[in-house]
């Protein structure tokens, strides 16, 4: 179950999504509480990247430990050390491997064992043959035992209605010690799934009051470039801060947003003039890098950049149209000189892209007469 544990690694500039969970590594006889990183391409980091098959070998060998012996020595890096006393774990190598395989499916947006089980249940409910029930039962048992009670997302009844359905009247679910399923219990389970389907359909048709959670337009990559002169149709290059679109800030005209940004960053007035009049944005940055920065600049820079971007698109309606044409797309802005302003293959913070999206939203609001 991924939840909010989202991470990634970058391979050749490609972002590979991942997640993590806690695990014990056994090395030299001692146990180390660590994070097990699982990635969408099927690689697992358990103190070194391994494939799923290799990970199974790590489980079988005890390197990734599921058996925690009484008195075993354990530690968490730079946190604590202890010995196991009456340890209890519900994981086995088979269960942990099955959970990891499910996680890889989830990271890729593919049906995991729970989704496959619920799909088999739908088939059974549509055509209640014993063959379809047996298929649904096998699919239920294929869910890792540790995850079965989460299958319906109902923490009150957990997976009881699912167990009743796949067992059928007179059948006995594997995990039960009580009487076989009665006809009344079975009919109640069938009704449960009918109500569940109704609520799911209702939820899917409900439009969020505040609109969609995700953009409907595909993400747009604004690659790093060094535009030297204006073009009739600059396309994405027009969104770059070093695109030659002069901006007037407090009566001073700068050749580009980048010129203005770097000029405003320096403390010395004479150096500021030199930066503002530099031949290129790259030259402006080079001059600014050798000058003393204004006090508090690092804390103020995002506010400064926001005002500069607002000025650029207010003073250049043609470029504002290019920005507006990106609709609600995520803007991935690369900046070879800054991991703060650029995304840079997932290694940067993409602040320029984020601020462009903010200014774009303001332009949409102005056009709609909002605010």
Please, could you describe this protein's structure?
With 371 residues, the protein is of the alpha+beta class. Helices cover 42% and strands 15% of the residues. Strands 1, 2, 3, 4, 5, 6, 7 and 8 form an eight-stranded mixed beta sheet that branches. A two-stranded parallel ribbon has the order 9-12. A hairpin with a 2-residue loop joins strand 10 and strand 11 (252-254). Helix 3 runs antiparallel to helix 4. The two termini are 42 Å apart.
In short:
The chain is of the alpha+beta class and 371 residues long. It has twelve helices and twelve strands. The strands form three sheets. Strands 1, 2, 3, 4, 5, 6, 7 and 8 form an eight-stranded mixed beta sheet that branches. A two-stranded parallel sheet has the order 9-12. A two-stranded antiparallel sheet has the order 10-11.
């Amino acid at each position: 179950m991924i939840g909010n544990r989202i991470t990634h690694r970058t391979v050749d500039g490609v972002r590979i999504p991942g997640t993590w969970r806690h695990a014990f590594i056994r090395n030299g006889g001692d146990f180390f509480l660590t994070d097990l990183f699982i990635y969408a391409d099927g690689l697992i980091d358990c103190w070194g990247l391994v494939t799923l098959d290799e990970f199974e070998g790590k489980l079988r060998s005890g390197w990734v430990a599921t058996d925690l012996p009484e008195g075993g020595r354990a530690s968490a890096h730079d946190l604590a050390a202890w010995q196991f006393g009456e340890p209890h774990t519900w994981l086995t190598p088979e269960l942990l491997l099955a959970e990891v395989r499910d996680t890889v499916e989830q990271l890729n947006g593919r049906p995991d064992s729970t989704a496959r089980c619920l799909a088999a249940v739908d088939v059974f409910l549509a055509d209640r043959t014993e063959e379809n029930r047996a298929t649904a039962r096998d699919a239920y048992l294929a869910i890792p035992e540790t995850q079965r009670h989460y299958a319906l997302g109902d923490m009150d009844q957990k997976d009881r209605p699912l167990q009743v359905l796949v067992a059928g009247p007179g059948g006995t679910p594997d995990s039960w010690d009580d009487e076989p399923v009665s006809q009344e219990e079975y009919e109640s389970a069938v009704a449960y799934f009918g109500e569940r389907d109704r609520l799911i359909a209702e939820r899917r048709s409900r439009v969020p009051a505040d609109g969609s959670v995700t953009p409907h337009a595909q993400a747009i990559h604004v690659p790093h470039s060094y535009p030297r002169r204006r073009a009739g149709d600059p396309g994405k290059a027009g969104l770059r801060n070093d695109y030659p679109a002069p901006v007037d800030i407090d009566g001073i005209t700068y050749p580009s947003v980048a010129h203005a940004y770097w000029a405003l960053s320096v403390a010395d007035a004479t150096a500021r003039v030199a930066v503002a009049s530099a031949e290129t944005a790259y030259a402006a940055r080079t001059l600014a890098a050798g000058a003393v920065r204004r006090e508090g600049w690092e804390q103020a820079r995002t506010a400064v950049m926001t005002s500069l971007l607002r000025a650029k698109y207010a003073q250049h309606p043609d470029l504002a149209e290019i920005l507006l044409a990106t609709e609600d797309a995520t803007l991935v802005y690369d900046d070879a000189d800054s991991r703060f302003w650029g995304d840079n293959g997932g290694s940067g913070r993409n602040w320029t892209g984020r601020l462009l999206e903010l200014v774009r939203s303001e332009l949409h609001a102005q056009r709609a007469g909002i605010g």
